[in-house]
Amino acid sequence: MANSPLELPVLTLDDVKLQKRITSRLSCLVLGESHREHLKEVFVQEMARGLEGKPSEPSSLFMEDTFLPDLPNGKEEGDFLALDLGGTNLRVLLITLKAGQVTDEILEYYTVPECIRYGHGSALFDFLASSVESFLKKRNLNSNKYNMGFTFSFPIHHRSLRSGELIKWSKSFNCPGVVGQDVVALLEEALARRKLDNIAVVAILNDTTGTMVRGAYLDHQCAMGLVLGTGSNCCYVEKPENFKKQSNGNDTTKLKVLNVEWGAFGDNGVLNFMRTQWDISVDRKSLLAGSFTFEKYFGGKCLGDLVRECLVTLAEEGLFCTGPSETLRTVGSLHTSQVSTLDGEGLIGRVKETEEILQALGLCYTEKDVKIAQYVAGLFSYRGVVLISVLTATLLQKMERPHVVIAIDGSLYEFHPRFRPLMIKLIGDMAPDHTFELRLSRDGSGKGAALVAAIASRCASE
């Protein structure tokens, strides 16, 4: 295999015939120049439709106005709460700002049980309110008044900064009674049932917006936010004149920060040209089949299963191990963190942890099987970086700014050995006239929500 994360993975086996059969079988995972150009064209078309008020054809990109009134300017002051829901862990955060700088923060995690994630929406929002109540009571803070930012990392249609209707569930949530409803109103009703009238929900956002705001707090040239974790999404600063959708009459924002919702890119079939049998299989077995097409090509929730499904196919066709084990056939048995390990060991020529992963999957393997597993992990990972980089470079070209800091949060970007270096190379190659910097922006969904609450409070007072 190649020893650089910047190069397309290479399979080198003593058995040249087997090597050719495998590389030929997996050639559909290699996105050449024509695929990349077609992807860019489709993305530009879908964005244009998403920005139109009444497009001739609906877009799979929501291009939602976040109604963010401003970015941090150093004048934010006070104590602000954040409620962060987007995965199996709910987080409640309290930060103190002085002259725009965070001087103190308190964070607590609450596990969201499966019965809540799949149960009725009213139970979910009661759980959110009770968690906030528990957080404040534990610290004797329940008599203080707080403005709160609510990170709700699911596709929403914004009506204002503090109003958003759920478009559809994603990830591991599917609560009846919430789609089409204003989730801020549902949260406020749950807070009222707990008599928490000392909390005002002043902003709703998703983790991508929070990531960008957190990035802008660190560097004022930040104008894009990416999330590369369990799922994936992007937001960016758009020229107001390009946004043709009708806004409400109260929109007085100084800028247009748009939530692309690119996780759902391709839900209308425009990405089927690069879909493989393994993408189709993973989608069919997912909680929300037919949705979030783009992020299922590489997102942390699916990358492990993509590699696993491919290894099952190779094993069934006599190209890998002695055949697929029951464990290998089991959805979720190979985690995305293990894909990072497989690819990472392939890059540095190690095998120890790869062998441990194959053993845990109940496989009988040889030296060639170790190389094949690393090669498959590398191919899916490389493909994922290509997809993200094409879209990011296209946005940079669209924004036409002299320099853009891109704030990124998520385990794929932070921990996968291939993602960051390859993104820097590919984005630079694809947008050579636009300088940029990728900046890790940890906890955009938590601190970002509190910062948005602070910005909203400052703008209201101004």
From TrEMBL:
<dbReference type="Pfam" id="PF00349">
    <property type="entry name" value="Hexokinase_1"/>
</dbReference>
<dbReference type="GO" id="GO:0008865">
    <property type="term" value="F:fructokinase activity"/>
</dbReference>
<dbReference type="GO" id="GO:0005524">
    <property type="term" value="F:ATP binding"/>
</dbReference>
<feature type="domain" description="Hexokinase C-terminal">
    <location>
        <begin position="224"/>
        <end position="455"/>
    </location>
</feature>
<keyword id="KW-0547">Nucleotide-binding</keyword>
<dbReference type="GO" id="GO:0005536">
    <property type="term" value="F:D-glucose binding"/>
</dbReference>
<dbReference type="GO" id="GO:0001678">
    <property type="term" value="P:intracellular glucose homeostasis"/>
</dbReference>
<dbReference type="Pfam" id="PF03727">
    <property type="entry name" value="Hexokinase_2"/>
</dbReference>
<keyword id="KW-0418">Kinase</keyword>
<feature type="domain" description="Hexokinase N-terminal">
    <location>
        <begin position="33"/>
        <end position="217"/>
    </location>
</feature>
<dbReference type="InterPro" id="IPR001312">
    <property type="entry name" value="Hexokinase"/>
</dbReference>
<keyword id="KW-0324">Glycolysis</keyword>
<dbReference type="GO" id="GO:0006096">
    <property type="term" value="P:glycolytic process"/>
</dbReference>
<dbReference type="InterPro" id="IPR022672">
    <property type="entry name" value="Hexokinase_N"/>
</dbReference>
<keyword id="KW-0067">ATP-binding</keyword>
<dbReference type="GO" id="GO:0006006">
    <property type="term" value="P:glucose metabolic process"/>
</dbReference>
<keyword id="KW-0808">Transferase</keyword>
<dbReference type="InterPro" id="IPR022673">
    <property type="entry name" value="Hexokinase_C"/>
</dbReference>
<dbReference type="InterPro" id="IPR043129">
    <property type="entry name" value="ATPase_NBD"/>
</dbReference>
<dbReference type="GO" id="GO:0005829">
    <property type="term" value="C:cytosol"/>
</dbReference>
<comment type="pathway">
    <text>Carbohydrate metabolism; hexose metabolism.</text>
</comment>
<comment type="pathway">
    <text>Carbohydrate degradation; glycolysis; D-glyceraldehyde 3-phosphate and glycerone phosphate from D-glucose: step 1/4.</text>
</comment>
<dbReference type="GO" id="GO:0004340">
    <property type="term" value="F:glucokinase activity"/>
</dbReference>
<protein>
    <recommendedName>
        <fullName>Phosphotransferase</fullName>
        <ecNumber>2.7.1.-</ecNumber>
    </recommendedName>
</protein>
<dbReference type="GO" id="GO:0005739">
    <property type="term" value="C:mitochondrion"/>
</dbReference>
<comment type="similarity">
    <text>Belongs to the hexokinase family.</text>
</comment>
